[in-house]
Amino acid sequence: MNHCYHCGDPCNDSEILHKEKIFCCQGCVTVFDILNDNDLSYYYDLEKAPGTSPKEIESKYDFLTNEAIVNKLLEFNDGSTQIISFLIPSIHCSSCIWVLENLQKLNKGVRTSQVDFPKKMVRITYAAAEISLKELVTLLAKIGYEPYISLENLDAKKRKTNHTLIYQLGVAGFAFGNVMFLSFPEYFQVEEFWLDQFKNLFRWLMFAFSVPVVVYSARDYFISAYKGIRSKILNIDIPIALGITVLFVRSTLEIVLDWGTGFFDSLTGLVFFLLIGKFFQQRTYSYLSFERDYKSYFPIAVTRISKNNAEEQIPIYDIKPGDRLLVRNKELIPVDAIIRKGNALIDYSFVTGEAIPVVKNSGEKVFAGGRQEGTLIEVEAIKEVAQSYLTQLWSNEVFSHSKEHKFQSLINKISKHFTIGVLSLAVLATLFWVFVDASKAVQVFTAVLIVACPCAIALASPFTLGNLLRIFGNQQFYLKEAYIIEQMAAIDVVVFDKTGTITTHAKSQITYEGIPLTEAEASLLTSSLRASNHPLSRALYDILKENEIKVLDHFEEVTGKGILASYDKQSIKIGAPSFVNASNMEDEENKTSVYVSSNNDFKGRYVFQNTYREGLLEVFQEIGKNKEIAILSGDNDGERGRLQMILPAEATLLFEQKPDDKLHFIKSLQQNGKKVMMVGDGLNDAGALAQSDVGVVVSENVNVFSPACDAILDASRFSSLANFLQLSNKGIKVIKWSFILSLLYNLVGLGFAVTGNLMPVVAAILMPLSSISIVVFTTVATQILGKSIAKKEKK
Amino acid sequence: MTIIYMLLAISVTVAIGFFIAFIISVKKGQYEDTYTPSVRMLFEDEVIKEVSAENSKTKTDNQ
């Protein structure tokens, strides 16, 4: 099979030969021509088949002629020059960067354009007089880079990334390097004249470098420790803040009273290492969004028919009940509405979980979030956007608070004991020295606190989790933040959504039941299906297209009922049972089926069944070993029998669940003390995803919309879900082992401290040594875990 | 040994100079996107080469 020169997709039956190159569709040819004619063919030299096939856009971007909307989208506008940033999901290779940064070759109006590859954003400066925003968007769409513009673009103007941590890290690293170099001469304790003469200068310089580290870089540890004490939680930041304070105060006292050099090197080093750990854990996937609500799924504007029957573009927030709106093919219904004109075929799969699009006729009610498949319809709004059936879900309180706060991490559990242990040891050692040699008591007390500062413990968790985060990322399982791995390790119940989560969107399994069709009938059936646009017809046509195609004598599509066609004295009816004279056949078990009759004789029916994802059985078996499984579906219970066969016996199966029901189901599990993982895909799962301890979204294409969640799983990796859960368990074990390792270091340090022998040089060696060995240990351990999971994947 | 004052002053000045450079680079957005520039850097040469190749072609055409 040949692959398209432009997009690399296999060219099935429609190969187009153009300029000695093979293309899969006319769209790809057009893009090739545009680029070729404008001196941009270098695009194809950079990468092989880099393109994306352009989609039909027609009048989709008409709303960009509405000035109010345009002004809200623009980043900068002085009348002549305008700047805008787009999210373009199809950016994926260096060719994309190159062509998007050479847009001025396609249109002189474009001044500059700059791509941010990790974020999949392009920022375009253009002259408004030469090219309008709508023309710009159309141009992008024409070359296969359609921007993703949604309601969300109106709300959040600019998300400024927070650079505080980078600054803090910079300050700490700068001070650490300089203090290290200044403290070096005194490590050797040589009695030299010049050293004696300059040591005060050296010491005060070190002091000067350390002040910004304590005040600025370590600020967050003090804040967190203070919060911990106020809410009576002994978190890990308390011993850290204590250690930093003691280090600083004692060092300052030492140089003021001329006792010694102080521990400024250990102090700055400690803060530097801690911040590196934080930084390592923080990096996430900038092109994925984990915070989305319905706003990024909904369009910005709709076409309204005004009172004098003119079409106008209005922002969807301006829709009032009673407004008449036009919804075109593939467009979203923005509010709950009643159909006034045209026949609707609405795909609710993303909203309710119904797998097959439903037919709605004039006068019937349609819900916001459904996608129209077919011709243009006219609807009358009956509610505002925020009050619609689907969007109301977001007024639930689960969406208003973040999950992290209600979760107590492993490290905080341990630090409780650790803090108490360290404090009591410090007091005991001090008491001992008060009786033996009172002059050393204060020194020992501070030394214990310095040495016990849990730098290594604080590093174990960020490095292990940060590494695992990257390993998961390589396996196309993207986590929002590192702490979610700890949550995953504690899960007791895994709840799945059905449609789109455990089933694929792609193809249904179709089986035929009834009298076998003759060759002529089959050919007629295929020919009639070919002419129909109904999704069921198209799905059926896909499996039957081997049959001969004839030019029909007569073809009629009766909306909501079926197809009527004839050829050479033979007629065929395809559709609902009543339509094909099969009224004696019951539409049993809620199964989706298409009935066929030839010359008014009932022949049989095609039954559509969901296709389950590959490896589903194994996933259920593996997870079922030590966790409970539940399935919540918004669909009818037609698949109950099939699901029960592959599920463990004690699994819960619930059908026709509304978004709210799903949320409450999760809540009730949690009230029974369970930790719940929700695996879903659509907007109807949004509430359950937010309520659950870990919300995982299964996505066919991670770049397009997915509801707010903690993790995004690429659908092709669904079969690895059980492995991922196992891996997070092992990750927690690694953390525990590194705690033990770092405790050993602490014990050695305490040996020095309790006996009153802690020299600055000992602290300066011990502290980085323990930190580095923890980093090495966790990195090696997680790498081994990562390799083992990669091996499992290959099998 | 008073030269040590001088040396210290120089070393601290250099260090602070680099520190300021770091702050400026963060402010200017060098840490916003750490990937694209590495790809973009490789384009320029190719584009210029292509243009010059074309120029030479048009030259020969003119002759």
| Whole-number tally of structural domains of chain B | 2
Evaluate the radius of gyration of chain A.
Answer: 33 Å
Q: Please list the strands of the largest sheet of chain A in the order they lie side by side.
A: 16-28-27-26-17-24-25
On the 0 to 100 scale, the average pLDDT of chain A is: 81
What portion of residues of chain A belong to β-strands?
A: 15-25%
Order of helices and strands of chain B: HH
Q: What is the average per-residue confidence, as pLDDT of chain B, rounded to a whole number?
A: 72
First-last Cα distance of chain A: 27 Å
Main beta sheet of chain B: strand number and arrangement?
A: none
Largest interface: A-B, 28 and 25 residues
Number of strand elements of chain A: 28
**Alpha-beta content class of chain A:** alpha+beta
Shape of chain B: elongated
* Helical content class of chain B: over 70%
Whole-number total of structural domains of chain A: 6
Helix content of chain A: 40-55%
The stretches of 5 or more residues of chain B where confidence is low (pLDDT under 50) are: 48-63
Number of helices of chain A: 24
Could you give a quick summary of the protein structure above?
The complex is a heterodimer of chains A (795) and B (63). With 795 residues, chain A is α+β, with helices and mostly antiparallel strands.
3D structure, described in words:
The complex is a heterodimer of chains A (795) and B (63). Chain A has 795 residues and is α+β, with helices and mostly antiparallel strands. Chain A has 6 domains: 1-41, no CATH class; 54-155, Alpha-Beta Plaits; 164-283 and 411-463 and 730-794, no CATH class; 320-383, Calcium-transporting ATPase, cytoplasmic transduction domain A, CATH 2.70.150.10; 475-504 and 613-727, HAD superfamily/HAD-like (Rossmann fold), CATH 3.40.50; 509-609, Calcium-transporting ATPase, cytoplasmic domain N, CATH 3.40.1110.10. In chain A, 43% of the residues lie in helices and 17% in strands. Chain A has 24 helices and 28 strands. Chain A has a 7-stranded mixed sheet with strand order 16-28-27-26-17-24-25, sandwiched between helices. In chain A, a hairpin with a 3-residue loop joins strand 19 and strand 20. In chain A, helix 9 packs across helix 10 (237-256) and helix 17 (519-531) packs across helix 18. Chain A is elongated. Chain B is mainly α and 63 residues long. Chain B folds into 2 domains: 1-32; 33-63. Mean pLDDT of chain B is 72; it is low at 48-63. The A-B interface holds A 42, 45-46, 94, 97-98, 101, 114-119, 161, 163, 166-167, 170-171, 174, 177-178, 181, 194, 197-198, 201, 205 and B 1, 4-5, 8, 11-12, 15, 18-19, 22-23, 26, 31-36, 39-40, 42-43, 46-47, 50.
